[in-house]
Specification:
Elements: H1 2-23, E1 31-33, E2 40-42, H2 43-59, E3 64-67, E4 81-89, H3 91-96, E5 102-109, E6 112-120, E7 125-130, E8 135-137, E9 140-141, E10 154-157, H4 170-179, E11 182-184, H5 189-197, E12 203-209, H6 211-223, E13 226-229, E14 242-248, H7 249-258
Length: 263
């Protein structure tokens, strides 16, 4: 019952935040850079994160909040309830396209993801899951993922990692490009996770993601049978950046063994 009430509450917050984002399209954005020139943040990212934090702190004062824009708590352990929030995942898309971005939210209890949400604001698609109770798209059940093969798979992968780089052996990824049916890059980790969960793509690979990028999507993907690890095949950590792979169970190990080699 506790998680059911949290679910209602989180969905209401998310939908109202989506309305605020849509209304922002008619206003001028204030855009800043963070870690580098392409790591962008807008006044809307900040306002939406503050909107969530204001309500969560008022209604659930014992819960902690880990937010991308830094307005939440200094979370050093995952004891109790921790909300992991990216108010706009895919900020560059939000700025340039006004689409292909999402609100990403995961609610964890003692380090275990109990509720997960990805809201595609433009398409009004709310992906959600409660641990042990399945995953849903706009409250319609998402089917458990079926098996596939590498040759039939569509993989989410940024072109940045296919060219020579200092983080991963790009030759293995070139071979992957040659062996799969297709490669896609959407510019939003949350949406890529949603697309794996719904079978629109079959795996998603990233070299550097933060907990708020994946916290909600991992809960959703696992509820339909996807496997999520880092690129060494180890369990995910939700207090630091790490590499990331989510895939249908039938190809997860093959991707790790045959195509992925970190430097």
């Amino acid at each position: 019952m506790e998680h059911q009430m949290l679910d209602y509450y989180a969905k209401d917050l998310i939908k109202k935040a989506g309305i605020k984002i849509r209304h922002s399209f008619s206003s001028e954005l204030a855009v800043e850079s963070k870690s580098d020139a392409n790591d962008l943040v807008t006044n809307i990212d900040k306002e939406i994160e503050q909107y969530f934090i204001h309500h969560i702190r008022k209604d659930y004062p014992g819960h902690l909040i880990l937010g991308e824009e830094g307005f939440g708590d200094n979370v050093s352990a995952l004891d109790g309830y921790v909300w992991m929030l990216d108010p706009i995942d895919g900020t560059m898309n939000f700025i340039h396209q006004q689409r292909n971005f999402a609100i990403s939210l995961g609610i964890y209890k003692d380090g275990v993801g109990v509720l997960g949400y990805i809201y595609d604001v433009i398409h009004n698609e709310l992906y959600s899951a409660q641990k042990g109770h399945g995953a849903y798209l706009n409250d319609e059940p998402i089917p458990v993922l079926e098996s596939t093969t590498i040759s039939e798979a569509i993989i989410g992968l940024s072109p940045n990692w296919i060219i020579p780089n200092r983080r991963i052996d790009n030759e293995g990824l070139i071979k992957l490009v040659q062996d799969v049916r297709g490669i896609r890059s959407y510019g939003s980790a949350a949406l890529e996770l949603a697309y794996v969960a719904t079978g629109r793509i079959d795996a998603y690979i990233s070299l550097r993601l933060s907990p708020w990028d994946i916290a909600g999507g991992v809960v959703i993907a696992q509820e339909v049978g996807a496997v999520a690890t880092n690129l060494n095949g180890q369990p995910l950590k939700f207090l630091e950046q790490d590499t990331f792979l989510v895939a249908r169970k039938s190809i997860h190990e093959t991707l790790l063994s045959n195509y992925i080699s970190l430097k």
